[in-house]
TrEMBL record:
The keyword Cytoplasm does not apply. The keyword Signal applies. TPR repeats lie at residues 54-87. Residues 1-21 form the signal peptide. Keywords: Repeat, Signal, TPR repeat. InterPro entries: TPR-like_helical_dom_sf, TPR_rpt, Ycf3. PANTHER family: TETRATRICOPEPTIDE REPEAT PROTEIN 6 (PTHR44858), UDP-N-ACETYLGLUCOSAMINE--PEPTIDE N-ACETYLGLUCOSAMINYLTRANSFERASE SPINDLY-RELATED (PTHR44858:SF1). It comes from Chitinophaga eiseniae. This is Tetratricopeptide repeat-containing protein.
Length: 580
């Protein structure tokens, strides 16, 4: 072999070696660190070198799903099955696609077939099935746990059939427990601990222990876990992302745009260098969270033209919100209206609806008809947000209720406050008097703001105010509003149904000073006065008329009652004598 030919062979071997160096494990490492585009590119190289490597097709599809490319992932799984028709792993991948499309029965059939083909002893297949059922809406979380338990249970297996567990297996088992929730939180923590016994440097296991703690409302512990994960492995981007998400959550003990910007910058520093569009989005987001709204708008609009549909949505939300935050509701409206029109109603999601509702609620017009249109559109988007969001969060429901209350849609506000209470009770949270009061006051105003009064809504308010009394019997609030609700049902005070509540309210409130409670005592005294007036109880009429006059000297009801009482007491005029 001459020297020139041997050099060519060496170069070919070097080139071949560089392709073969790209392995499934390299791609999995990229996935672990959240570098989804790099992972996809790595798996593409693996497939080019070995078209029958089913793991490369499967995990490439998972990388595409992480980038929200369902169509691309479906095509990858299908192409893999054409190359490897017997692949149980790719069968599980197609089952995941069925779940995403909402066909749980078809998914379960594929999962069962994949399990049968591997006898439940293939770690990649078992994890693929479990992960689909935990992560995808509509998945069977109990089934996910069963699959992982079967994989890890070596009882009765012959030596050559024994399965050696990996950290990834215990993490997946922990995920199944975590998604099952409730008392399974401790079991999830234990599973993650087993993963750490096998790999003491597993930042993923620690990060997911933080998720368990957050779900248990142990927020300080969750932040500590996520911080620990970033210290264990400074390149583990998902932990920085969890810290960023924590501080962008609109709750009083979480929201901090300063900290959000800090962790987003740290996340960006280790983000996937191959994903240019994502990095442009992160740069615009950092500007947003630093309250550099002009910078966020400029960066977002510059990148929007070259973005795919998914990122056009993200950039539109970011730019629209930046305009909103700087007080430019009209430009925020234009950005989001243009986006909604370009993609069509069917492509809008919960985030779009939420921002659109916020924008339209902020818009103000001196023209009453235009203002009414803004309000109606805001509420329509708010209802769509409520129905489209998968987050069953009481705080979200309360935000919806408060927006409806501001728009004077009291019945709907009462409904959403009530839903928030139901959800919190289901989560075994303790409700306070204010939670029931919010329900009652909105149903009350919904009931009395129509003519004739809506008794059904007033009854709902009465039930809620009774719960206020049960929570805080020492306060007058619940008694007063039960009095108001029953006064609305008995406006002439003839049946006396409001009297016991006003009696109790007066007993609690008068010692606190009538000057501080004139308006509320006025309602109570008025009912008492009318009640005794219709009973023709002169002594008590005098007592309550005096009380009412003392806090409201020009009270019209007192004047009318006294005039009517006086006219009753006048002797009838004698008939004139006939003149002869």
């Amino acid at each position: 072999m001459n020297r020139r030919k041997s050099l060519l062979v060496a170069l070919l071997c070097a080139a071949s070696g560089s392709v073969m160096a790209q392995s499934v494990q390299d791609g999995l490492k990229d996935l672990y660190y959240g570098k989804n585009l790099s992972a996809k590119q790595t798996f593409e190289k693996v497939i080019a070198a070995k078209p029958t490597e089913d793991k490369a097709y499967y995990y490439m599809g998972i990388a595409q799903l992480a980038m929200e490319d369902v169509a691309g992932a479906t095509a990858t799984f299908q192409k893999g099955l054409q190359a490897v028709p017997t692949s149980a792993l790719l069968q599980a991948g197609m089952g995941r696609i069925d779940l995403i499309k909402g066909d749980a029965a078809a998914a379960k059939a594929k999962f069962e077939a994949a399990t049968a083909a591997t006898q439940g002893r293939d770690g990649d297949v078992a994890r693929a099935i479990a992960d689909a059922n935990t992560e995808v809406k509509g998945g069977d979380r109990a089934y996910a746990l069963t699959v992982m338990d079967k994989l890890l249970n070596n009882e009765g297996r012959r030596k050559r059939e024994m399965y050696t567990a990996t950290p990834a297996d215990y993490i997946e088992q922990g995920d199944a427990y975590r998604y099952l929730g409730g008392e399974n939180g401790g079991k999830a923590i234990a599973a993650y601990e087993k993963a750490l016994e096998l790999d003491a440097n597993s930042a993923e296991a620690v990060m997911k222990q933080g998720l368990v703690n957050y779900n248990a409302r142990l927020k300080a512990e969750a932040v500590a876990d996520w911080t620990k994960a970033t210290n264990m492995d400074p390149n583990y981007a998902p932990a920085f992302n969890e810290l960023f998400l924590f501080y962008t959550t609109p709750k009083k003990d979480q929201l901090s745009w300063e900290k959000a910007a800090e962790y987003l910058e740290k996340y960006m520093a280790i983000a996937d260098p191959a994903d240019k569009t994502k990095n442009e989005y992160l740069a615009a987001s950092v500007a947003f969270f630093k309250k550099d709204y002009d910078g966020a708008i400029a960066k977002g609009q510059a990148a929007m033209a070259g973005a795919n549909e998914i990122y056009k949505n993200k950039f539109s939300l970011l730019v629209g919100d930046a305009y909103l935050q700087k007080g430019d509701s009209l430009n925020a409206k234009k950005i989001m209206d243009d986006y909604a029109q370009s993609v069509g109603e069917s492509k809008l999601d919960s985030s779009d609806y939420k921002l659109l509702s916020t924008i339209y609620l902020r818009l103000k017009s001196s023209d009453s008809a235009t203002q009414e249109q803004y309000t109606d559109k805001a509420l329509a988007y708010l209802e769509k947000f409520a129905s489209s969001t998968t987050v069953k969060d009481p705080d979200t429901y309360i935000q919806i209720a408060e927006a409806l209350k501001t728009a004077r849609k009291y019945e709907q506000a009462g409904d959403w406050y009530d839903k928030a209470n139901e959800l919190r009770l289901a989560n075994k949270e303790q409700l306070g008097a204010i939670d029931y009061f919010n329900v009652g006051i909105n149903y009350y105003y919904a009931g009395v703001n129509v003519s004739p009064y809506d008794t059904a809504l007033i009854n709902k308010s009465d039930i809620a105010f009774q719960k206020v009394i049960e929570e805080k019997p020492e306060l007058g609030t619940g008694y007063y509003w039960r009095g108001r609700a029953n006064f609305a049902k008995d406006p002439q005070a003839q049946s006396g149904i409001a009297k016991p509540f006003y009696d109790k309210y007066i007993e609690i409130t008068e010692p606190l000073g009538t000057d501080k409670n004139k308006s509320t005592l006025s309602f109570a005294y008025t009912y008492e006065l009318l009640y005794y007036y219709f009973k023709e109880d002169k002594a008590n009429v005098q007592i309550w008329a005096d009380k009412l006059s003392a806090i409201d000297p020009n009270n019209i009801t007192v004047k009318q009652v006294r005039e009517n009482m006086a006219s009753r007491e006048k002797p009838a005029a004698k008939p004139a004598a006939n003149k002869k």
